[in-house]
């Protein structure tokens, strides 16, 4: 097995708590399913949010999905003038038996513009 990093991002329509949690859960679930990751394979998950998202910590969505034993950490993205607004990014580190090139990264809604080269 090897530690692999899986990236994902989603653009929210508005900064409202329920929308943020639902969108984060959607992205996280799709990332896990796309890479066939079980809870026991998770090492940790990092969440970032653009500075305009303040209604909730994105990691709360993971806790609500039952990931109470997975180390989670939230960060604020740099406030860059040309950055897309209302973006949540996730990086999952997991113990996977796949080559790095086989990892499926997931970019949803407006976040597909961030990495058109790898968006699924």
TrEMBL record:
GO terms for biological process: chorismate metabolic process. This is Unannotated protein. The lineage of its organism: unclassified sequences, metagenomes, ecological metagenomes. GO terms for molecular function: chorismate mutase activity. SUPFAM superfamilies: YjgF-like. It comes from freshwater metagenome.
